[in-house]
Amino acid sequence: MPSTPTTSAAPAATRTKTAEHIELVDRHSARNYAPLPVVIARGEGSWVHDVDGARYLDMLSAYSALNFGHRHPRITEVFVRQAQTLTLTSRAFHNDRFGPFCRLITETFGQDLVLPMNTGAEAVETALKTARKWGYHVKGVARDTAEIIVCGDNFHGRTISIVSFSPDSFNQEDFGPVTPGFRSVPYGDAAALAAAITDRTVAFLVEPIQGEGGINVPPPGYLARCRDICRERNVLFMADEIQTGLGRTGRRLCCDHENVIPDVLILGKALGGGMMPVSAVLARREVLGVFQPGDHGSTFGGNPLACAVATAALETLRDERLAERADRLGTAFMAQLRQIRSPHIREVRGRGLLIGVELHPEAGGGKPWCKALMKEGILCKETSEHVIRIAPPLTIEESDLDWAAERFERVLARATPTG
Ligand code: PXG
Q1: Is residue 6 within 8 Å of 377, Cβ to Cβ?
Q2: Residue 240 catalytic?
């Protein structure tokens, strides 16, 4: 596919199939999402086509699950070959893709053990269970009293326990009673963490950059300081790298920016190569070794198709040096965005190819601007109301980023999203 686009979004009046699909969805699906009005039918690399033939540059990448782009050839080949060989065994039996995957992922991230799951939220739940059991069996905390410290403006998923410690903006009040045992401190404030730790604290759960919270980059040294505090107080430092991991921020892990090796590392999204839900928790033997048969698991966790795809994803990250690529392209693209003269932009921030353009409150929120960008052939999504989140595949061509920068400039220079 040529990297320079020739067509952009078709005018609304001709988007008949789009309307039909959206009508079906409105009639038959729960309204737990409010997507942009585009119905994607095909994807390759950084580009997608909708059902009416319009073409868009994907600058969301399924919230970083498509770090390798759509249908990366190497990962697709492994996926198809494995699908024709063996897809599922359950963990009642071994499968021949599991061991090699476990070796590669633990060696890649310098951890002893891995526990594979499927979705990000499941991996976070796994980390929470790990911390509690470690607290009772290794740290010696009295049973049923363990406390886990989380950060304000966090996003870790949507299960009952996770929304129990999510900010109110995620509608926590409708899903009570909440799970006890969590305590929140302001993000970016290491002193607040130190002050909140008690004898009952077993873990500190943190996103190295907050994705959903608005692409919030903590002050330099924050992660290393928190890791030191956790070490001094015998508390597990648990990094949720589901969105920031696997090259996204210009390093293999976002924690690598501060040379921090988390006690518990949580991965998801891009680990599935954009094809399968694959997540994982990694830790030292002393930590993840607390699990006994029957304590935890998942029918699909560690299935051979997932392991084959995740192995190919990790190899692709390494062999294509995608973290370095994200660092280089992200730095250049952020500089281009910062040059845009627009009355609406308050701040451009981020790391690597995880970028947020925060708009002034008077700009009317990110959503209408994302719709305007869609009409120009760019797909991205607002987060935290006023922030346009930009997270293209790490494989994106430089010429595509230049093309996108022109369109961002054109749209954001307008007085209003519609002109
Ligand atoms: N941790 C972080 C940091 C995340 O960004 C999760 C955990 C949960 O992952 P799963 O695979 O359970 O969604 C995320 C997810 C959505 C949505 O549609 C999810 C995320 C970002 C934007 C939208 O639920 N991040």
Answers
A1: no
A2: yes
Is the per-residue pLDDT at 167 higher than 60? Answer: yes
| Residues 6+ away with beta carbon under 8 Å from 133 | 290, 291, 295
Tens digit of pLDDT for each residue in 257-309? 999 999 999 999 999 999 999 999 999 999 999 999 999 999 999 999 999 99
Cα–Cα dist 6/292, whole Å:
57
> For ligand 1, is residue 205 a contact (CB within 6 Å)?
no
272 lines ligand 1 (CB under 6 A): no
Selected catalytic residue, list 58, 153, 189, 240 = 240
Q: Tell me how far apart the alpha carbons of residues 247 and 417 are, in angstroms, rounded to a whole number.
A: 32
User: Which amino acid makes up residue 47?
Assistant: W
Q: Which domains does the chain have, with CATH numbers?
A: 12-65+322-412 (3.90.1150.10), 73-319 (3.40.640.10)
Which tokens sit at 217? 């980059």
Three-state DSSP class for 340? coil
Structure tokens belonging to residue 207: 């996103």
Q: Where are the beta strands (DSSP E) in 135-275?
A: 147-151, 182-185, 201-206, 236-240, 264-267
Name residue, tokens 């963490």. Answer: 193
Substitution candidate for ligand 1 out of 212, 246, 389 with most atoms within 8 A of CB: 212
Return the H-helix or E-strand segment holding 48.
strand 47-50
Strand (E) or helix (H) holding 44: strand 40-44
Q: What angle do CA 209, 212, 214 make, to 5 degrees?
A: 70
C-alpha 46/C-alpha 396 separation (Å) is 6
155 is catalytic: yes
* Closest-lying ligand 1 atom to the alpha carbon of residue 119: 11
Of 204, 269, 327, 408, which one is the catalytic site residue?
Answer: 269
Please report how many Cα atoms fall inside a 13 Å half-sphere around the Cα of residue 164, on the Cβ side: 17
Is there a catalytic annotation at residue 269?
yes
Global confidence as pTM: 0.96
